[in-house]
Write a structure and sequence with these properties.
Chain A: Residues 80-357 form the Dehydrogenase E1 component domain. Chain A: This is Pyruvate dehydrogenase E1 component alpha subunit. The structure holds two protein chains of two kinds. By secondary structure, chain A is an alpha/beta fold. Chain A contains 16 helices and seven strands. Chain A folds into two domains: 4-366, 3-Layer(aba) Sandwich (Rossmann fold); 376-407. The termini of chain A are far apart. The relative contact order of chain A is 0.15. Chain B contains twelve helices and 14 strands. Chain B has a seven-stranded mixed sheet, sandwiched between helices. The longest helix of chain B has 15 residues, at 8-22. Classes of the chains: A alpha/beta, B alpha/beta. Chain A binds chain B through residues 24-26, 29, 100-101, 147-154, 169-172, 209-210, 212-215, 240-243, 247-249, 308-309, 313-314, 370-371, 373, 376-377, 380, 387-388, 391, 395, 398, 401, and chain B through 31-32, 34-37, 39, 52-53, 56-61, 63-64, 87-88, 90-91, 126-131, 270, 299-302, 304-309, 311-312, 318, 321. Bound molecules: thiamine diphosphate. Thiamine diphosphate sits between chains A (130, 169-171, 206-210, 235, 237, 239-241, 301, 305) and B (31, 60, 62, 84, 88, 91).
């Protein structure tokens, strides 16, 4: 990486760069291949499910994949399918007016399941707002994810129950929370003790767009200086709403980690085995007291940014088609079939289970009651607060005035 | 008279287009403002017509957006920065408060920052958290900034152009739940803007009581006044338009005329714009008042989940309730 032209994504010829300044004040848009993660990307299974040879990029993680059993493969596959189904149900519920909004993870199942499965119970995860698959791996009931998008709460699960923090909507904020939490673990003496039941780490999730935020960059600095037990997990799904990567950075996130003082790895985010292996290695290192790692999962957002977005305004269909070929579930299934990890009954059974899950999510979403109006005043402060108390009383009196009128 | 019926969103879009045509130094910047035209489509079509040099898709970083707008303004440009939603302005808070507001003052007037920060604000659209806030008071509290809010398509069209022409930094609040409401807009350039950017507007005349408001609540207050008229009460409605500076003359004249004032806004009443208005009006119009100045606003809560919105946001009933209270004094 010594020649700066190499790090430019897609490589604008370097002689062009000198003339650029005179012609325009902004750089020309960088046409780079957002469908190919390049040779440094860790990958174990190709788009057709074929197990790849050991190469320089995947060699350090090969042992982790080798040690996996058919049962491991099956339960990972099951997670992929159930997570996709849960997401599809969220989307459908929004379309039917049950939810105000839904940010779909379609296409990113492997990135999230691979990462989520590498976490141990004592680890802690800090999500953005699209990490439904990580939530699933942490044991958060999918129905609980819907409340916020239905508008009945701001994230009604207990973070400490599954060590899965609330969703964070303001891009980048949670990266610093994760760093501080990891610093707390250091002080609690649960890092680098050598006891696998005790040693813990934190994982912080954001998107490619999120890497531009101040908070993200400050988190890198803090985590590095503190040698915090933290894995930064960037899901590079190629788009931040309408903006492609080259509007957010000129050097991919995994290469930037070096500048903050810790390693960065790019992994094929549609290859669940690769994501799992890379994340497990990074978490093991963090738990052992070796400090942070940044993982960039190279993947793709197959759907719209959220149900409010219209991607036809800014991206071309052929790009989506290329990525459809890299589908994470199809790929895992192909791999399992080729290697005899499961029989057809297994796949049929997982599909049936997905149907049941979808039906339950739907039922419980529709049964989710509107919150009682008075609860609007709950939990603003931990202690008593005279202003909130007074406004609550006012509100009660105001509501009562309608009842009286109605009674007349 | 060149008049066109358009939505508030289109008014802003047309106003931005005009400003860009009139002054090559006007540049737009923000997240998704280019091809997508912004998440609310306010900048729709502008990148296509003015190019990527003038409609800049920025990285996803609000401090970065506002901070670089400062540099562009120092260099002679007139940046118009879009903050995607009210709740995302806080990463830029430091830049706005520490730098944008104070640059002219501490440079002894040598440095001007003719920049506009556009903020779609307010609730009522069923959004998730951080997408429905009214944070105008934080900025109105800070000297060095001008804070304005449009409420209808005509003001949208004219005020955005005036804000861009202003040599001071302007926070421009757009009532997002009114984006799609339509009205006739007189776009006759020769006649110029109907009102100065700092002026309040008497939206509806009345004699019994004055509703003072701005932004999304202008429409709600007008409806309340119509409902009150049906019961034989004559309410005056004032759209402040400029929150900092306040157009004191228009406010005081109305308060003195009707003797009763109710201030209405979506933001929490505690230390909101209404607090300043109540204090001002009481100090200046004390002997003309028949009742204390009352406030109707959000409760002192974080903006709640959307299923609480109808209870949190001022509506006709709550406004008329306060009107009754005032008239009962
Ligand atoms: C501070 C802040 N600014 C703007 C937004 C609006 N917004 C929501 S998602 C998004 C794009 C995020 O892109 P990326 O980080 O790549 O994550 P992805 O949604 O693709 O998973 C934007 C601009 C926000 N939520 N927070």
């Amino acid at each position: 990486m010594s020649d700066p032209s190499e790090v430019r994504q897609g490589g604008m010829p370097s002689d062009l760069r000198h003339t650029m300044h005179h012609e325009t004040s902004v750089q020309p848009s960088m046409e780079h291949d957002i469908t190919d993660g390049g040779p440094e990307m860790v990958q174990f299974v190709d788009g057709d499910g074929n197990r790849l040879e050991t190469n320089e990029a995947n060699a350090p993680y090969a042992r982790i994949v080798e040690e996996m059993t058919s049962e491991d493969a099956q339960s990972m596959y099951r997670d992929l399918v159930l997570v996709r189904r849960m997401d599809a149900e969220g989307h459908a519920l929004q379309r039917q007016g049950e939810l105000g909004l839904w940010p779909s993870l379609l296409g990113q199942e492997a990135a999230q399941v691979g990462a989520g499965r590498a976490l141990k119970p004592q680890d802690y995860a800090f999500p953005g707002y699209r990490e439904h698959g990580v939530a699933w791996c942490r044991g958060v009931d999918p129905v609980n994810l819907l409340g916020m998008f239905r508008g009945v709460n701001h994230g009604g699960w207990n973070s400490n129950e599954n060590n899965f923090h609330l969703y964070t909507i303001v891009i980048g904020n949670q990266m610093l929370h994760a760093t501080g939490y990891a610093m707390g673990m250091q002080r609690d003496g649960v890092v680098g003790t050598g006891d696998p039941e005790k040693d813990a780490a934190v994982m912080a999730f954001t998107g490619d767009g999120g890497t531009a935020q101040g908070d993200y960059n400050e988190a890198m600095v803090f985590a590095s200086v503190a040698n915090a037990p933290l894995v930064f997990f960037v899901q590079n799904n190629q788009w931040a709403i309408s903006e492609p990567n080259y509007k957010q950075f000129r050097i991919p996130p995994y290469q930037r980690a070096r500048g903050f003082g810790f390693p960065g790895v790019r992994v094929d985010g549609n290859d669940v085995l690769a994501v799992y292996a890379v994340t497990k290695a990074a978490l093991d290192a963090a738990r052992a007291g070796q400090g942070p790692t940044l993982i960039e999962a190279f993947t793709y957002r197959m759907g719209a940014h959220t149900t409010s977005d219209d991607p036809t305004k800014y991206r071309i269909a052929s790009e989506v088609d290329i990525w459809r070929e890299k589908d994470p579930i199809k790929r895992m299934r192909g791999f399992m079939e080729a290697n005899g990890h499961a029989d057809p009954e297994f796949f049929a059974q997982v599909d049936a289970e997905a149907d049941e899950l979808a039906a339950r999510i739907r039922r419980e979403c529709q049964q989710m009651p509107d919150p009682a109006p008075l609860t609007m005043f709950d939990n603003v402060y931990a202690g008593d607060h005279p202003v909130v108390a007074a406004e609550r009383e006012e509100f009660i009196a105001y509501q009562a005035s309608f009842v009286e009128e109605g009674a007349n | 008279m060149a008049s066109q019926k358009m939505t508030l969103a289109k008014g802003l879009n047309t106003g931005l287009r005009k400003a860009m045509e009139n002054d090559p130094k006007v540049v737009l910047m923000g997240e998704d403002v280019g091809k997508l035209g912004g998440v609310f489509r306010i900048t729709e079509g502008l990148q296509k017509d003015f190019g990527e040099d003038r409609v800049i898709d920025t990285p996803l970083a609000e401090s970065g957006i506002v901070g670089t707008a400062v540099g562009l303004a120092m260099r002679g440009y007139r940046p118009v920065a879009e903050i995607q939603f009210d709740g995302f302005i806080y990463p830029a808070f430091d830049q706005i408060i520490s730098q944008v507001a104070k640059m002219h003052y501490r440079s002894l007037g040598h440095l001007k920052l003719p920049m506009v920060i556009r903020v779609p604000f307010g609730g009522g659209i069923g959004a998730v958290e951080h997408h429905s806030e009214s944070n105008e008071a934080y900025f109105a509290h800070t000297a060095g900034l001008r804070v304005v809010s449009c409420s209808d398509p005509s003001d949208a069209y004219w005020m955005i152009q005036q804000a861009i022409e202003t040599d001071d930094p302007v926070l421009f609040y757009e009532p997002k739940r009114r984006y799609h409401e339509r009205a006739e807009v007189d776009i006759d350039d020769a006649a110029g803007a109907p009102l100065g950017l700092h002026q309040a507007r008497v939206v509806r005349e009345g004699t019994d009581l004055t509703l003072v408001t701005y932004g999304p609540m202008v429409k709600t207050c007008t409806q309340a006044a119509e409902a009150a008229a049906a019961e034989g009460r004559s309410l005056e409605v004032i759209d402040l338009r400029s929150l900092s500076p306040l157009d004191r003359e228009t406010i005081f004249a109305s308060a003195k005329k009707t003797g009763r004032v109710v201030v209405v806004h979506e933001a929490s009443t505690f230390l909101g714009m209404g607090a300043e208005l109540a204090a001002l009006i009481q100090a200046e119009c004390f002997y003309n008042l028949e009742a204390p100045v009352l406030r109707v606003g959000g409760y002192n809560l974080p903006y709640p989940p959307s299923r609480f919105e109808e209870h949190f946001l001022p509506d006709l009933d709550r406004i008329l309730d306060s009107v009754d209270k005032s008239l009962a004094f």
